Amino acid sequence: MEDINEIIKEIVKITKGVKSVDDLYKGKYENLYKLVGEFEHKTPCGTRTGAKKELIKQLTGVDVSEYPSVASCETIIEAYVYISKDLDADIRKVVGRDPKVLAYDPKTINKKVDWLKSIGVKNIGKVVEREPKVLTYDPETMDIKVKYLKSIGVVKIGKVVEKEPEVLNYDPETMNKRVDYLKSIGVVKIGKVVEREPEVLNYDPETMNKRVDYLKSIGVVKIGKVVERNPDVLTYDPETMDIRVKYLKSIDIKDIGNVVEREPKVLTNSVKTTKSKVEFLFSKGYSVDGIERCPCALTRSLTEKIMPRIEFLESIGRDPTELSLGSILTPKDKKFSKLFAGNERAYGEFLEKWKAQRLAEYAAEAG
Length: 367
What we know:
This protein is an all-alpha fold. Among the domains are: 1-88, no CATH class; 285-367, no CATH class. 64% of the residues lie in helices and 0% in strands. It contains 22 helices and no strands. α1 (4-17) runs parallel beside α4. The N and C termini lie far apart (56 Å).
C-alpha cells in the first residue's frame, strides 16, 4: 500500500475487530503489526505525528490535531483495544476527555484496574469514561483515600468511586474539613451521606453554609436529618428553592420547615410538576391539610403512583379521601393491593390495564 491513508484505514478496520488486548499479545494479529511496520516505514520524520493523529481520529472519532504529542502507533492500538474492548468504555468519551490515555501501556493500566476491582468497583468502563485519569492514580496513594473513607463510615467504597471517581484524588485534609462541617450542622450518618453524594466531600463549606442558612430561614430545624435524606440540598440554589417555597405557601402549606424535613425533594421538583399533583389531589377532594400531613404526595410520580392508586381505590368502591395519603402512597404495590383489595394481584392487574389505556389515549391524542 503506497498511500499512508490506505494503511491507516486498514489498521483501523482490523483494530476495531480485535476483541481483547490479550489477542494482540498472543500473536493473533500478526498482519496488524505488519501494517504498523509499513506505517512506520511510510511516515518519515516530520510526517509521522500527523499520521498518528489521523489514526486516532479514525479510531476514536476525536480530533487530536491540537494535542502536542502522541504515543507510538503500536501503543495507540493496544491502549485503544484495552480501553474500548477489555474495559468496555466509550472510547470517544474517554479520549475526548483525555487523549493521553492512548499513551498508556495496558499492562500498567491493568494493575490500576485490578486495584479498582479489589475495592468493589464493578463498572470500570463507566468510571474511566467519567475520569480517565483514574488509570494513572497510584494504588498506594489511593489506599490512603480509601482508608479515610472507611474511617468516616463509608462501606460501599466501590459504589462511591463509580459515582465520583475523582474522590480518589481528593486530599484527606480537605475531606476532613467537609466532614467537620457536616458534623457541625447535625449530620450523624456521614458515611451514608457520602455514599449517596460523594461530591459532598469537595463542596465549599461557605457555599454549603448559605444553603443551610436558607433552610433555617424557612423553618427547617433538623438540618442534619434533611442532609442525610437528600445531600443534594447542599447544592441547591437558594433563589431556586425559594420559588418552590413560595408556591407551597401560596397553597397554604403552613409548616414549610416540617414539610422539607420530611420530604427534602420538594425543594427540587419544578413548580409545574408539584402544581399538577396538587391540582389532581384537590380535584379528588383532598385538602391542603391532607397533603401537608403526607408531603411525599408532592414528590411521588403523578402518573406512576398517585393517579393509578387513587383510581384503583375508586374502581373497587373505596373513597380515597376517607384514607390518608400516606396509607395510599407509601406501601409497595403488593402490600397496597392486599391492604385494600384483599390480595396481592388485584392492583398489579389493574395497573397493567390502566397503563395500556393511558398509552392508547396518548396515541389517540397524538394521532
